[in-house]
Amino acid sequence: MQKDILKNSNKETIENEILQKAESGIRISSEEALFLWKHGNFKKMGITAHSIKCKKVKKNIVSYTVFRIINYTNHCIIRCNFCSFTTQTNSDSKEYTLSPDQIIKQFETSYKHDVKQLFLQGGVNPELSFDYYLELLRKVKKEFSDIHIRAFSPVEILHMSKNTGMSLSKIFLELKDAGMDSFPGAGAEILSDRMRNILSNKKASTYDWVLTMKTAHEKNLLSSANIVWGSEETDEEIIDHLAIIRKLQDDSKGILSFVPWTFQQQTKNFKVRYVPTYEYLKMVALCRIFFDNISHIEASLLVHGEKAGELALLWGSDDINSPVIEENVLRSYGLKTIKEAENFIKKAGFKPVRRNFMFEYDKKS
């Protein structure tokens, strides 16, 4: 298909036509997205992406949120090759599973400092019953009735369904009734079964990941989504991933934001290549250009740091995914406090606006 798009035109002409099409509000195809990814000029893509962003959100603002992550267990049978979360902690002396009371105690300090969003994530632990998750949500919500709980991941939900014999729909209804408010689009990485087998032979398939996300959205458990690249994936697999996410959003309209970031070198078992800043910015721009149905593109300070994050705000991003209180899975370059987040946004030339997981802006900002 790439040969077809190149017929009778030079690359610059094709690029200009695609970018003009996107800026005018016409959806670009996967073939056109692949052309931009392979041949597009990242600066020109950035200009177009910023223009599109300014039409979707107020051009002078950048939003941020603050939440506490608590990793409720580090025991995981998926054993992703790129992840050091369990490989570093899989000795008997270091394995843990937190009780609801321990989680409440950990969250208390954050809550006292006006952090009213909790993100629960952990490994796939076969020793945990479904009642553990329900009790966890109920107890935390009873203790902190006004907080928002974003919890688990498609891989964890699939495991709950398999263990209980309950449908995904029933699982989500039970969790929502117990206190779950939204759902992260975690564990996507690259939605290619070839790559998912490289990541882990126990990783959820592309079909199962999408089905779980769609079911969550049907129950009004809205989510984020992401892409993680910078390994052995092909250009075509990258664009296929974006196309799968866009189709999911067409079908369910449950994705609030999209976050592009790259793999980090955490283990010796997984091949990670160096991704230069211009490639990261090119991906940010491509996401803004391609996702005509997703309003918010997040700059990943958590992985890429402040310098790349500041540029990303001019390449199509309208949000930063910091500050995060506690992060054990990634090596974090993120901002640590609300003041740091607001100062960063101001220095980048924008007005900071605090928002919640649902992208509702704080009226006091």
Q: Which fold name fills CATH's third level, the topology?
A: TIM Barrel
**What's the end-to-end separation, in Å?**
48 Å
How many domains make up the 3D coordinates? 1
Q: How many strands in all? A: 10
List descriptors.
12% strand, 14 helices, TIM Barrel, 365 residues, four-stranded parallel β-sheet, six-stranded parallel β-sheet
Overview of the molecule:
The model is unreliable at 87-92 and 327-332 (pLDDT under 50). The chain has helices at residues 2-6, 11-23, 30-39, 42-56, 100-112, 130-143, 154-164, 168-178, 193-199, 206-218, 235-252, 277-290, 301-312, 338-347; strands at 61-64, 67-71, 117-121, 148-151, 223-229, 255-262, 296-299, 319-320, 324-325, 351-354. It contains 14 helices and ten strands. The chain is globular and about 65 Å long. With 365 residues, it is α/β, with parallel strands linked by helices. The strands form two sheets. Strands 5-6-7-8-1-10 form a six-stranded parallel beta sheet. A four-stranded parallel beta sheet has the order 4-3-2-9, covered by helices on one side.
Task: Describe the SSE topology.
Blueprint: H1 2-6, H2 11-23, H3 30-39, H4 42-56, E1 61-64, E2 67-71, H5 100-112, E3 117-121, H6 130-143, E4 148-151, H7 154-164, H8 168-178, H9 193-199, H10 206-218, E5 223-229, H11 235-252, E6 255-262, H12 277-290, E7 296-299, H13 301-312, E8 319-320, E9 324-325, H14 338-347, E10 351-354
Parallel strand pairs: 1-8, 1-10, 2-3, 2-9, 3-4, 5-6, 6-7, 7-8
Helix pairs in contact: 2-4, 3-11, 3-12, 4-12, 5-6, 7-10, 10-11
